[in-house]
Amino acid sequence: MKQTNNTKFAILGLLTTGCHTGYAIKQMIDQSLNHFWKISYGQIYPTLKQLVADGLATVQDTSQEGKPDKKEYFLTEKGEMELRTWLQAPINAIATEKNEVLLKLFFSRHQSNQSTIIQLEQYRQKLHEHYHTYDAIEKMITTELFNKEDAAFWLFTLDYGKRTTAAAMEWCADTVQQIQNWEEE
Amino acid sequence: MKQTNNTKFAILGLLTTGCHTGYAIKQMIDQSLNHFWKISYGQIYPTLKQLVADGLATVQDTSQEGKPDKKEYFLTEKGEMELRTWLQAPINAIATEKNEVLLKLFFSRHQSNQSTIIQLEQYRQKLHEHYHTYDAIEKMITTELFNKEDAAFWLFTLDYGKRTTAAAMEWCADTVQQIQNWEEE
DNA sequence: TACGTCATGTAACCGGTTACATGATTCA
DNA sequence: TGAATCATGTAACCGGTTACATGACGTA
């Protein structure tokens, strides 16, 4: 029994945010949803086609000046209803995120403490970069003129990213510290 | 160009923790690695077979009293080397974890604030349960006699889970609070 | 005899990425 | 003429789950 296909709803939702082409959807995902959802063209275009087939969206060929033609998709009423129904449906179990660093740490008695520390420091560095990305997106949303109603929710998702990333960074620092303390004994 | 196949290394690593059968590996994963890695039998058994084919492990049929026969796998020296090499290899980019709650929140202007709050509360409840699971595993590791060298690292991974979960729970509470404040204006 | 645990395995399916193909338009 | 951006699309592949099949052994 399958349950998810949340990607379909991600696209359904993005069609309400001013994105109406596969290309625009992809850009939006890479810019703003990147920290909790990502989709490739290999999914986007077939899904859009499917939405039309299911009567959840309509297409329309549009020619532009100075740019190639594009296909614009718009939600139908049925599509909007589908989105709202999904929004209210209870969430499934929290997905297990695969964490390569934790997996390595789990088996780290097989390597030197120094090697483990290097891994943790590298991880912290990456988390740090992520954190700054969140900051940058946050500034973009607050300064550029987006739909104000959407913006509040988008900032919430960024806050989530910042908080959990900050917690992970602290953990990194503390764990490195603890391993270093072993050495001194 | 593929990169990962970390699952192979997860199994390689688990063979050093006292697990020597596919069944035991599965149990270990469900009990202790569940929050950052999970593997189904559909991957375990074929992978074990592959490890032997690649000379990274050996098999041996063992009959037990009072239990069915089993196949015991042991790392070869080549297998141990493979594990150590992987441990020291730099981590790839941090994987994007798909978060259904954040996805819904992102589009939540399409539903009532009350519905959004319900979702967030349900999420917080699930995080809460996860937190208690971490606590339980932590107690198990500290009380039962495990390899002490392994135990320290295992506790680090649990600490990570607890800290990031705690941060997420706080975010939930604060976000609900903010949405409720809107109503009062 | 039926249930629970221990134990091994695989075929079908599915969500998703990667790599590739194509082509319009603009600008340096 | 060649690079950058805008734009659409798909076939091959892959990691992984699900559902199913099988069976030994102990215990109620």
TrEMBL record, chains A, B:
Keywords: DNA-binding. PROSITE patterns: PROKAR_LIPOPROTEIN. This is DNA-binding PadR family transcriptional regulator. It comes from the Bacteria. PANTHER family: NEGATIVE TRANSCRIPTION REGULATOR PADR (PTHR43252:SF6), TRANSCRIPTIONAL REGULATOR YQJI (PTHR43252). Pfam families: PadR, Vir_act_alpha_C. Residues 11-84 form the Transcription regulator PadR N-terminal domain. Residues 98-179 form the Transcription regulator PadR C-terminal domain. One of its GO terms (molecular function) is DNA binding. The keyword RNA-binding does not apply.
